[in-house]
Design a protein that fits this description.
The chain is an alpha/beta fold. Helix content is 40%, strand content 19%. The chain contains ten helices and eight strands. Strands 1-2-4-3-5-6-7-8 form an eight-stranded mixed beta sheet, sandwiched between helices. Helix 1 packs across helix 2 and helix 4 packs antiparallel against helix 5. The radius of gyration is 17 Å and the shape is globular.
Length: 274
């Protein structure tokens, strides 16, 4: 099936969780013979982080689903119902089961990697065909901005720090940093950014995440940008059964810096494990 004739549709889903109704936008494209892929974005990201996947020839036959977490993209933020990242894991699980009710590969970037692990910690991994971690949180060093956030009050974040982080990203030589800076400015609720940062830091500091990822009993791929080849845990990943891939000419947001290589590598991994 030609990719251009089968682009994703933008739609909305309403889920009910703990007495709260949440309306979330999503991108979905039905596949043909391939498996399902469920994408989870990170802090300051959005479903569009994965748009190039819908244009990737290696994924043309796959059923693809990406959505906005509350407070990002087009999804509104309710501080009472979205108290932390564990709540996001519950939301992600409901979205997956509502819109893609089948075993699927989870593709998770940055904080999305933490959400994926929390999802499996709570609900199990029986329906997870594999995990593709795009520099998802595994260790303390992965808290790029969230650690700075938790050291400040919400007013300090709103008045100064949030803008400062965007300025730093726009000064980068990597296009992904620029795009994320724009998304933070245009499509990110600062309240959500602040609220989600605390559990992101505490879980990353806990020492549990890397072991949880290493102990998963399914195919796993870890993708990282060339600029981050000094990540301290890469040797442990390479010594394990995890497949590890460096994406050239990219930093943390490799899905924007080098989308062709990023999603082609994911497509090859999915094909080899389907």
């Amino acid at each position: 099936m030609a990719i251009k004739s089968n682009l994703p549709r933008l739609d909305w889903v309403t889920i009910n969780r703990g007495g709260f109704r949440q309306r979330l936008p999503f991108l979905h494209r039905k596949g043909t013979t391939g498996p399902g892929l469920f994408f989870i974005h990170g802090l300051g990201g959005a479903k569009e982080n994965f748009y190039a996947a819908f244009q990737c020839p290696q994924l043309a036959h796959c059923d693809l689903l990406a959505f906005d977490l509350p407070g990002t993209g087009l999804a509104e933020f309710d501080p009472e119902s979205c108290t932390d990242v564990s709540a996001l894991a519950e939301i992600a699980y409901q979205v997956w089961n509502t819109l893609l009710p089948q075993p699927a590969f989870i593709v998770a970037a940055s904080m999305g990697g933490l959400i994926a692990l929390l999802l499996m910690r709570r609900y199990g991994a029986a329906n997870v065909r594999g995990v593709i971690n795009i520099e998802g949180n595994l260790a303390p060093e992965d808290c790029m901005f969230s650690r700075r956030v938790v050291e400040h009050s919400f007013d300090e974040l709103s008045d100064r720090l949030f803008h400062q982080m965007q300025t730093e990203l726009r000064a980068s030589r990597y296009p992904g940093d620029h795009i994320i800076a724009h998304n933070m400015a245009l499509n990110t609720d600062i309240r959500a950014y602040h609220q989600y940062s605390f559990q992101t830091v505490s879980e990353s500091d806990s020492g549990r995440l890397l072991d949880e990822f290493l102990n998963l009993a399914m195919p796993r791929l870890f993708l990282y940008g060339e600029a981050n080849r000094t990540l301290s845990y890469l040797p442990r990943l390479r010594e394990s059964a995890v497949e590890v891939c460096e994406v050239p000419a990219s930093a943390h947001f490799l899905f924007y810096d080098n989308p062709v290589t990023t999603f082609a590598r994911i497509g090859n991994f999915v094909a080899a494990n389907s």
